[in-house]
Amino acid sequence: MKNIIGKTESVCPVCLGITEAYRVLKKDGVYLEKYCPAHGYFSTLIWEGDLKSYLAWDRGNRKKDKITGAKPSTGTCPYDCGLCTDHIRSGCCVLLELTGRCNLKCPVCFASSGENVRPDPTIDEIGGLMDMLMEKGGPYNLQLSGGEPTMRDDLPQIIKLGLEKGFTFFQLNTNGLRLAREPEYAKSLKAAGLSCVFLQFDSLRDSVYKTLRGKPILREKLTAIKNCEKAGLGVVLVPVIAPGINDSEIGAILSFAEKHMPAVRGVHFQPISYFGRCIEETGRRITIPFMIREIERQTHGRMKASDFGGGGAENPYCSFHASYLKQPDGRLKPLPQKGGCCCGGGATSKQSRENVARQWKGSDGKSAPEGTMDAFINETLDNTLAISGMLFQDAYNLDLDRLKRCYICETDKDFGMVPFCAYNLTSTTGKSIYRR
Fold it and tell me: Which end of the chain is least crowded, N or C, by CB within 10 Å?
């Protein structure tokens, strides 16, 4: 008899039809199991470890945000979203896709960028989307995304428009190629009001970039970081971790980040999910316990698994995070957990927005007088390294209980604000619900 420890709903990976799903405890961990009458039985590992460790990860925050303009629930989640009254979180980071064009064709792209590209939205259309986001509870932290957003020459104007609309934090999701190839480009984005760069950074080996990105581009990554540092732009390294490809480099990436503080403000791991151009689940599924165990092992105990906690704003099984204060002797001191979002701190969406902006933003170029509180805060932030990770859901491991607490949303002119994992959900045949 199966050891069922929870019931939820999910979707069939083949047809995306809604199915009952069960969390089932087995010898090596917790699995999400479901059955589609048309396509059969599916079982996916969601947690490595025993029941005690699984239950202990849940922080238990069930407080519901007030969601402005939420649609009435139809009871058919993940369909008919954008957001609905069954949703619990109002949004923290909201992606605004500026283009479908890209200067890479990554085999693991969640957006399948560069395929069937439609015309870029005009700046007036982007302004309309920004107005919609403000009406729905903004200002959110805006993730300027794509495609590759630096393909647009009017990116500085878009950032300035966002400032005029009332947004205060702008994060650039980028592969870094233009930042590397145009030395003054980072300065122009900083001058326009960009807050930080969310830099695709999978490895310190070109062989990994050839596999995950199709090209050996390590040199460009390193140059992009240098140019951002000169411009005073904070950089967050974003490694996609794929089993058997770069899961042995977790410690090396963290060591690199530490050596490049304070230009590098954090590392945000994204274990591979199966959607977009990468839709076939293959091999071992990377879980939260695997990630934090490997962080401890590969950093030789400088960072410990016990330092990490799950999110308190999003569903705790979506993320992990810890922050470290670098001591004068070089030791890393773990900072207290505060209920946290995926990036640490903040039990509500609003608190999470503020925490992300404070930690990830680079220097403003102003030095506070020595001995003042502002100087102390600046020094503390410059010596703090935020380590986090987000385990996005795909058609295999989608859990609607998790999805209803999602606060990372995609902006869509027809649907409004759609939870990231619902928006990018892709069947094994390439079908999606929202992404066109």
Answer: N
Instruction: For residue 419, give both structure tokens.
Output: 């939870």
Q: What is the pLDDT along the chain (436 residues), one digit of tens a residue?
A: 579 999 999 999 999 999 999 999 999 999 999 999 999 999 999 999 999 999 999 976 677 888 888 899 998 999 999 999 999 888 889 999 999 999 999 999 988 887 878 899 999 999 999 999 999 999 999 999 999 999 999 999 999 999 999 999 999 999 999 999 999 999 999 999 999 999 999 999 999 999 999 999 999 999 999 999 999 999 999 999 999 999 999 999 999 999 999 999 999 999 999 998 888 877 789 999 999 999 999 999 999 999 999 987 789 999 999 999 999 999 999 998 765 445 545 555 566 566 666 666 665 555 555 555 555 667 777 899 999 999 999 999 999 999 999 989 999 999 999 999 999 999 999 999 999 8
pTM, two decimal places: 0.94
Q: How many whole angstroms separate alpha carbon 102 and alpha carbon 177?
A: 11
Q: What's the Cα-to-Cα distance from 288 to each of 47, 270, 318, 332, rounded to whole Å?
A: 7, 11, 8, 21
Question: Can you tell me the distance from the alpha carbon of 415 to that of 399, in angstroms, rounded to the nearest whole number?
Answer: 21
**What one-character-per-residue DSSP string does 272-336 give?**
----TT--S--SPPP-HHHHHHHHHHHTTTSS-GGG-B--SSS-GGGEEEEEEEEPTTS-EEEPP
Preceding omega of 156 cis (within 30 degrees of 0): no
CA torsion 143-264-248-292 (nearest 10°) is -80
Beta bridge partners of 137: none
Beta pairing class for 264-271 and 93-97: unpaired
